[in-house]
Amino acid sequence: MEKTYAIRRYEQASALLPLRWQQSAGRLPEWKKAQAEEFRLRTGKPLTVLLPEGESYLTEEVPRMVVTQADLEQLCDTVTGYSRYAAGDTLSRGYLTARGGFRVGICGTAVMREGRNTNLRDLSSAVIRIGRERQGVGVPLLSNLWEEGHFQSALILSPPGGGKTTLLRDLIRLLSDGTEGTPAQRVALVDERGEIAVMHQGVSQMSVGCHTDVLDGCPKAIGIPILLRAANPQIIAVDEITAAEDLRAMVTAANCGVQMLATIHAANREELERKPLFAEVVAAGVFSRLITISMVDGQRTYEVEPL
């Protein structure tokens, strides 16, 4: 990833911080800015930045400032443009989406009504994820995902933080736009948690291709049938298969001739094979390719194999 781009994304994310923290964020060394993954704010604790080696205090000054509830309220107001009510649906699910492709996770006290969380009050912590794209990371894999002129449904595997969403996003972009050796495809994306396209007021903040239709904030099991009816997709993409109902919806799509592109959590294939849900994935025959992401000497490697 280009260093100047990584630093620029850090600085854009830091502009979301409460004003009294922005100067401290600006003093972080540039090499740390390029590596930073998240800002983490917890009431009564110093603000930290997440680096590859772990969390670090944003400032070395002692005594350190601590985050207050007022800081968290200001953060929410900044992200929502002082219209938190309009973002109530995503806030009730624990996150907000900021212009520019930044996702802000929020914790606090749930406001429950009829067994459903409708809002958060007494905010206690927030996570600003410094979203970055890695365009081109999927290019070397494409030739192994096509057979006889047709895309083969693929499942992307890695542990949390391993780069699944980044690879998924780039593959969606490549499939949607087409390449020299592959035709453009109609891709439909169920972006349940708003992390792939990162929609803001109906506009994707991340590059997902010019032939991609995005259903934002919708559960996969509900969204897949909607897209089958409404979008006439050739490929449906989703992030993080976690439940049997997700898989059942994918089976329905596959039986309609639609190819699937999805991710799932596991450190490796051996761990994946111990998961009951994986047995259902194999038995369903939805996917024909497995993409495994591994870390080797601090670098991500990608392996494509038949499934």
Report on this model:
This protein has 307 residues and is of the alpha/beta class. The chain is built from ten helices and 17 strands. Strands 13-10-14-15-9-16-17 form a seven-stranded mixed sheet, sandwiched between helices. Strand 4 (95-98) and strand 5 (102-113) form a beta hairpin. Helix 7 runs parallel beside helix 8 (244-255). The protein is globular and about 65 Å long. The relative contact order is 0.11.
State the gist of this model.
The protein is 31% helix and 30% strand. With 307 residues, the chain is α/β, with parallel strands linked by helices.
Cα end-to-end separation: 30 Å
* Beta strand %: 25-35%
Mean pLDDT: 89
What is the alpha-carbon Rg in Å? 20 Å
Mind summarizing the main beta sheet?
A: 7 strands, mixed
Principal-axis shape equals globular
